[in-house]
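Running co-folding for 3-hydroxybutanoyl-coenzyme A.
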Amino acid sequence: MYGTTTGEIDETQEEQERLLAFEARIARGEKIEPGDWMPAEYRRQLIRMISQHAHSEIVGQLPEGAWITRAPSLRRKMILLAKVQDEAGHGQYLYHAAETLGVRREEMLEALLAGKAKYSNVFNYPTLTWADVGVIGYLVDFAAILNQTMLARCSYGPYARAMVRICAEENFHKKQGQDIVIRLAQGTPCQRAMVQDAINRWWQPTLMMFGPPDHDSPNTPILKRWGIKTKTNDELRQVFLDTIVPELHALGLTIPDPDLRYDEGSGHWLIGPIHWDEFWRVVRGEGPCNKERMAARIQAHEDGRWVRQALAAYAQKQTAA
Ligand code: 3HC
């Protein structure tokens, strides 16, 4: 049983009774709210997940943001601006949700900027062509929708409610990406080649986004037990495959996996090996763009220092008055 911050067994009778009552609430599908009793491990897991989710939203603006000034039309520029702005809002939503668990914004940001907190692997790759913007919207945001639709059923109230608003906007993100991919797939041979190249480069990183395989996912068991996750990493990855493979095939695009095959018995698309050594290399900070992303994030934090100082001075003046 978990009752302490390190996930150790807690022997006190009262703790055991509280934990049983807590788990009965989860089993009844009740939402746990900030003021409710919760095991320290439940709190720790949520702070870990939600803060890293928020970091991913903020860092995730960088790859696509690089194309705002190079969008092929004013309309595409406006759509991309709206999407990137949405992601910033998602980050704020999620930092707020994490703060309801008692962690300060500064702590979360310090962990990220010091390289102690993770953000999604997928944002550590370069966006080489305009097709990347389409493929990120279509594949990466679709993967995020699958994950976040699951989290909208999460047992922690503030996280589940944040997901409802975020998922609505993610659907627009996916649709605009899908529109770009369809246009390019039906375009000139050069445009078709460009979007196929983008699919080839983003396919593996997107599959990795769902997390390591279930047998190598140490957090999943307790997250499932306490209703934070309702599906495992592999289950969501499979839903992604079964949806996106037929759609990309319908566009005449190929999947960069020679072992890909449809299994009549299970009705699932089965894939070859995912490059988990690459995944862990990127998670360790050795991906193609990790250093660039962190440098940009640290610079943005430095550039915003005067705003934080002005707000702190104003708040101090208000309390002194
Ligand atoms: N990138 C980086 N690290 C990852 C990862 C990924 N794609 N997947 C897993 N990891 C890390 C985990 O954080 C964990 O490390 P930690 O214990 O130090 O935090 C370790 O690998 C083992 O993985 P687990 O499977 O045990 O971890 P989880 O059970 O937490 O599952 C997860 C990973 C599915 C990402 C889960 O944390 C989750 O659902 N998080 C919330 C959603 C989220 O963060 N999404 C990120 C993308 S946001 C986005 O796409 C924005 C959109 O607008 C584009």
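Result summary
Residues 17-320 form a domain with the Ferritin fold (CATH 1.20.1260.10).
The chain is about 65% helix and 0% strand.
Job closed.
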